[in-house]
Every structure is written in structure tokens, then in C-alpha cells.
Amino acid sequence: MPKDGAFEARLEALREEAARTGTVRERGLPIAGGPIPPAAAAPAAYYGQPIVKPPVWTWQVGLYFFVG
Q1: What is the CA radius of gyration of the chain?
Q2: How many helices (DSSP H) and strands (DSSP E) are in the chain?
Q3: Tens of pLDDT, residues 8-48
Q4: What is the 3 state secondary structure string of 15-37?
């Protein structure tokens, strides 16, 4: 990636915002081959079903494990 002035200025502004507030509001750039795929490239689930099912346990099960 070429190091131009605009890119370096934006990077410095993002670093300053992160140091000042602890978060960055702007969206970053997608990295090719990065560990987190973009949302549009997320794998489609089998027959349109979600990949991970919601939990069926109630709060009592968590309480049982905590107390036990």
C-alpha cells in the first residue's frame, strides 16, 4: 500500500481518537485474507437456518451450575 499523506493523516486521526475516547467511530478497511470475513461474505447457513441455534435453557439452569 502506498504511503501517501492523506492515508497517514487519517491513520493518525484514528489513533488519536482511539487514545482519547477508547473507541473509533469510523469503519476500518477490510484486509484481504484477514481473520474476520466481511459480513457480506459470511457463509450461508444450511437451508436458510441460522448456524448457531439460540439457547433453550432458562435462567434456572445457569443458577443450578453456579450454586452447584
Answers
A1: 21
A2: 2, 0
A3: 888 888 889 888 988 878 776 666 776 666 666 556 667 77
A4: HHHHHHHCCCCCCCCCCCCCCCC
* Of 33, 7, 12, 32, the residue nearest 24 (C-alpha): 12
Return the C-alpha cell found at 6.
492523506
Residue 25 and residue 17 in contact, taking contact as beta carbons nearer than 8 Å: yes
Distance of CA 27 to the CA centre of its chain: 11
According to the model, what pLDDT value does residue 47 have? 74
Q: Which residues of 18-56 are buried (b: 16+ CB within 10 A; e: fewer)?
A: eeeeeeeeeeeeeeeeeeeeeeeeeeeeeeeeeeeeeee
Query: pLDDT at position 65, please?
Result: 92
Distance CA(41)–CA(54), nearest Å, equals 22
